[in-house]
């Protein structure tokens, strides 16, 4: 994990989920995780320092026949009692997760008229906005795994959709395209433009790679740092054999009473068109923001973002420098009710990611005289072995989800009281919290390294061993 970029860089780099970490990094992380977990917690460290309280507590637990104090498996039904007699936590969750007061911009007549379109969900504007998203969904802009290393990449006919969507946006958002600085996208950069070697950093900085979209709405106050709004135009593919299982065809952009259907409608042509809608509205209103607004849209986020987001990030970095942006807003956790009440979660980190390809070769032959174990059989055993050894969960203090939980504990009035109390004494209850989070599929992989076998190929004909 030590090779992860600095946070500032990472937040600019939209495809953080695909950060290039090596299997060595992963192994080191795994080893470290296991070591953390396997260190036996000393019994004495489980007890509060305050002796009188300790005595009362011990007696109480014993009287309810609950003797497993050494691992602090305190049942939920006990927590109000435990909370009452344990010393006050060193850090109360009520002191964490402070929020800024809501900002109310001063009235501006022209802007407010347009703002009302959004705020009151003007039905006509709402329908138009849905249609603009649907149109974007109907343009197939798919990233396939084999596009990752393509150089040059623009000649691949499967990339035609990226030109189409750019042309579509040009028509749909005329003010954005006519008034904002729009760097020439077709400038052929010197090769190797996609090379990740640091020595080419300067070379890449001035290049926005072919399909990347970068808009700059200059603010009136040049001393203010810009804000950067990001999204990506690409989507993942759709397996041909699953098309019939879709409620509506994956690129239909079908609109029913509530939803826009199709690939990209949630990841993330929705935030893309929402941002363009918003900027088109403020331009229409003649609004000139004090702070520069940058829109940066990559086109290969689903295959690591090396050509799109990475190049955009370098370009922006070259212009504005280290810590040169006030805010970077990319797709992320979004709005979640996971903690009981709807909360807008700010994503500040993403997990690392790596692909591992395993190939098994065996001598050819015929199924009438097969060896006891074919290559497919060996591979099946490997897959079974991988699945039989899932990673062990761990809740490290450095995991940002700890803070997310504290925010839930502080601001959600119906937050689970057991979890709140346990969070306040996280060093004592860590194992219990891990158990709790691990049982919920929504939180399980926030504390666990996931692994999944997702592509398998082998064999070309029945009876042929190869
Ligand atoms: Zn996405």
Automatic annotation (TrEMBL):
Q: What keywords are assigned to this protein?
A: Hydrolase, Metal-binding, Protease, Zinc
Annotated GO MF terms: carboxypeptidase activity; metal ion binding
User: Mind telling me which residue stretches traverse the membrane in this protein?
Assistant: none
Keyword Zinc: yes or no? Answer: yes
* Cited InterPro entries: Pept_M20A, Peptidase_M20
**Superkingdom, taxonomy of origin:** Eukaryota
Q: Which GO terms describe its biological process?
A: proteolysis involved in protein catabolic process
SUPFAM superfamilies cross-referenced by the UniProt entry? Zn-dependent exopeptidases
Q: Name one GO cellular component term.
A: fungal-type vacuole lumen
Q: Which family does it belong to?
A: Belongs to the peptidase M20A family.
Name under which the protein is recorded: Uncharacterized protein
State the species of origin: Blyttiomyces helicus
């Amino acid at each position: 994990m030590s090779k992860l970029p600095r946070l500032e860089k990472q937040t600019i780099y939209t495809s953080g989920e695909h950060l290039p970490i090596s299997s060595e990094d992963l192994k080191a992380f795994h080893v470290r995780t296991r070591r953390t977990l396997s260190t036996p917690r000393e019994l004495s460290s489980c007890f509060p320092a305050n002796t009188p309280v300790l005595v009362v507590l011990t007696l109480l637990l014993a009287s309810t026949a609950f003797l497993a104090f050494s691992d602090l498996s305190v049942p939920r039904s006990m927590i109000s009692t435990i909370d009452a007699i344990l010393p006050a936590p060193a850090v109360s969750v009520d002191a964490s997760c402070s929020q800024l007061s809501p900002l109310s911009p001063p009235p501006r007549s022209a802007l407010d008229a347009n703002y009302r379109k959004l705020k009151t969900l003007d039905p006509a504007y709402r329908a138009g906005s849905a249609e603009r998203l649907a149109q974007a969904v109907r343009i197939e802009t798919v990233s396939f795994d084999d596009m990752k290393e393509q150089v040059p990449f623009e000649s691949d006919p499967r990339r035609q959709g990226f030109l189409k969507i750019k042309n579509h946006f040009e028509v749909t958002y005329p003010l954005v395209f006519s008034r904002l600085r729009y760097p020439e996208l077709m400038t052929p950069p010197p090769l190797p433009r996609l090379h990740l070697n640091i020595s080419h950093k300067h070379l890449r900085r001035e290049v926005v790679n072919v399909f990347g979209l970068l808009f700059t709405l200059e603010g009136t106050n040049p001393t203010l740092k810009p804000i950067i709004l990001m999204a990506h135009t690409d989507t993942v593919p759709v397996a041909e054999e699953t098309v019939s299982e879709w409620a509506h065809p994956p690129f239909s952009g079908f609109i029913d009473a509530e939803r826009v259907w199709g690939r990209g409608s949630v990841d993330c042509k929705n935030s893309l068109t929402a941002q363009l809608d918003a900027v088109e509205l403020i331009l229409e209103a003649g609004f000139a923001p004090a702070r520069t607004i940058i829109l940066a849209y990559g086109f290969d986020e689903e295959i690591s973002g090396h050509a799109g987001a990475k190049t955009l990030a370098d370009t922006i970095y070259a212009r504005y420098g280290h810590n040169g942006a006030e805010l970077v807003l990319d797709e992320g956790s979004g709005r979640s009710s996971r903690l009981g009440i709807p909360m807008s979660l700010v994503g500040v980190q993403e997990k690392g990611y790596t692909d591992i390809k395993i190939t098994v070769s065996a001598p050819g032959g015929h199924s009438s005289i097969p060896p006891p174990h074919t290559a497919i059989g060996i591979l099946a055993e490997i897959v079974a072995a991988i699945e039989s050894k899932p990673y062990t969960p761990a809740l490290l203090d450095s995991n940002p989800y700890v803070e997310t939980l504290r925010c839930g504990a502080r601001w959600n009035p119906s937050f689970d009281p057991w979890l709140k109390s346990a969070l306040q004494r996280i060093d004592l209850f860590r194992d219990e919290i891990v158990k709790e989070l691990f049982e919920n599929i929504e939180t399980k992989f926030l504390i666990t390294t996931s692994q999944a076998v997702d592509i398998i190929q082998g064999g070309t004909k029945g009876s042929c061993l190869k």
